[in-house]
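Extended Data, panel c. Modelled sequence:
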Amino acid sequence: MRNRFGVSFSDHFAIDPKWLERNGVFDPTLDLDSPLFIDPFLLHYSVHPEFSDNASSEYEARFTQICGLLLAKGTPDEDQKAYYSALQLFKTGEVKGLGGTCLGYGKSSTASGRGIGVKLAKKALDWARTVVNMGVKDPELFSTLSLFEDGIGADRISDMVASITVKSIIAFNERIIDSLIEEQKIVERPVTTSISGIKCRLLVNPFSKTPLLLLPVDILKHLPVMSDATSLSEAAETDNDVRQRVNAHIGEIFKIRTKAEKEAIKQRAMEDAQAFQALLDVLKILEKTPYNMATDPQGLMQWKPNAQTFSNLYKLKIEDDESLPEIDRVEHVVEAIIDQFKKLVEQNRLNRTFYVDENPRHERYAQLLFLAIAFAYCDANGLDISPESDAGAGPVDFKFSRGKEKVLVEIKLSTNKKIVHGYKEQLNAYELAESTFRSHYVVINVGSIGNMWKSLLRLMADKPKISKYRRAHLIDGRLRASASKLTLSGD
């Protein structure tokens, strides 16, 4: 049984996190992928020569070559050969070992990098051929693929970059490992392995048992910039030359506010080379800044130390009554932890960690925070009931189990507009299920809850026999001066 969750690289290898911070090394969570990706726009700006010099050159050279092949004009047979050569250069496939970055957006991403297969590569190259035939010669055009092609998200772009620059990533790791051995006196030694045919010395992830690939913090992003498309106009205003070209060729950027308007920008960019290049230059300005690990606005890292701090400060004694049926024993533990979590949020200021600059963090932060706190309390009480998660880097669903008995827990923030739909799905699932598993649906109000909680209560009232096994809880996580509580209660 695991008694720890959220084990960082620095935790496991007994490394001072400040050393990693000073040296610009990302401190990954070894048992859970972080939803970050390698941004090709950032390679050139890295302070690490392996990336600013070598990786950026490798990336540019690869796509300059691909652009040249796509522009090649000859006989039909020669054109087909050039296209096939470009396809071979573009598709990266699945590279064993690249999952060692501990980055990703999918649940299977810890095992290996997914890369880009033949089908997606052909789709992407057809798009790229259209762009280069318009007259765009900038190899960075491929960095915008996730904006224009469905199925090629930031995670695939990240895997593609890692595959192209694997030699530089390995060189960075070997340099950092040598420094860790000398300065941090790490006990575990690197093992000799091979990635993409390159023999190398790498540390091993104790959970996946695969080589670990460290990365610099200054090449990592959270989400592609077009997820917040309104920032495009702000970036365009910062550079006079870019602003003038945007005004001339794709002035719609200054009006963008909605998803539909974002789509219009993409369509306009595909109409001529000047418009595309103007959009690309705006993106280059925006993409100069990596994810801020210090403030961690999305809570990608801070759930871990916050869980440790609060579970240590506010102890919880859980009496495990062995006379109860197994399912009731598990239920008792779950209820005790949820009640304590509610108290921490509403009375002990844990709610303050849900915000950065008074804006709610992503729902995933609250989910991982609860899960880590649950692990800590189960471990502190010596319980052989422990939470499990099939989290990957997507939505975090978890369960508490003993033997065949299990209790599910879902954590939702009021910023999630599918709260009522999610609970309704639980009720429907219960009616269809053969087993009578139980669950708890925990809603944390961080504002803008509207009528969602009332609607959820009506669903419960309509199906009382089922909802008693599908309990719902409302936690007041709003920032406020006083300790006043909501009048509604889900317990």
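The two ends are 30 Å apart (CA to CA). This feature is highlighted in the accompanying rendering.
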